[in-house]
Specification:
Elements (H helix, E strand, L loop, with lengths): L9 H29 L3 H29 L9 H4 L7 H8 E8 L6 E8 L6 E7 L2 H4 L7
Antiparallel strand pairs: 1-2, 2-3
Length: about 150
């Protein structure tokens, strides 16, 4: 009989099973660590993006409150911090905590529309945009009158 054909004893089989199980478990553990570790700031980026979206929505709501109170949106080029200070306390901190750039405020017609663009503070500086367009009947205007 050659050494190749000697059957393994039960004890040796269990030892080999444990060895392969340990190697397999270590491999899976390492794979999970690598996959979760490669994302780096995945959860952080999601949190920063979520904060920017909430902040942009808060600006939108503040502009709607401004419109209800004044009958129009702020004119283009207006300092939003100054115009919305009644609705958003601590504007400078609010903006710097939420955005890496912006808000950039544009309005083709301060009675009916505005556009805001910001960049979130995540690692990709994700651009976020809000565009609001009111219908003329909401503003009390008659589009057929000149």
């Amino acid at each position: 009989m050659t050494n190749d054909k000697i059957p393994l004893k039960n004890r040796e089989r269990r030892s080999l099973k444990r060895l392969f199980s340990s190697i397999f478990g270590f491999f899976h553990f390492s794979l999970v660590i690598v996959l979760f570790g490669c994302g780096g700031g995945g959860y952080r980026d999601e949190a920063l993006l979520g904060q920017a979206k909430r902040s942009l929505n808060r600006i939108k709501n503040s502009l709607e409150q401004y419109w209800v109170e004044k009958g129009s949106y702020p004119p283009e080029g207006a300092d939003l911090g100054e115009r919305l200070e009644k609705f958003v306390e601590g504007w400078e901190d609010f903006v710097t905590e939420s955005f890496s750039q912006g808000p950039i405020y544009l309005t083709p017609d301060s009675l009916t529309a505005y556009f805001i663009e910001v960049k979130a503070k995540d690692r990709w500086e994700t651009p976020l945009v809000i565009r609001v367009q009111r219908e003329a009947k909401e503003t009390g205007e008659n589009p057929n009158e000149e």
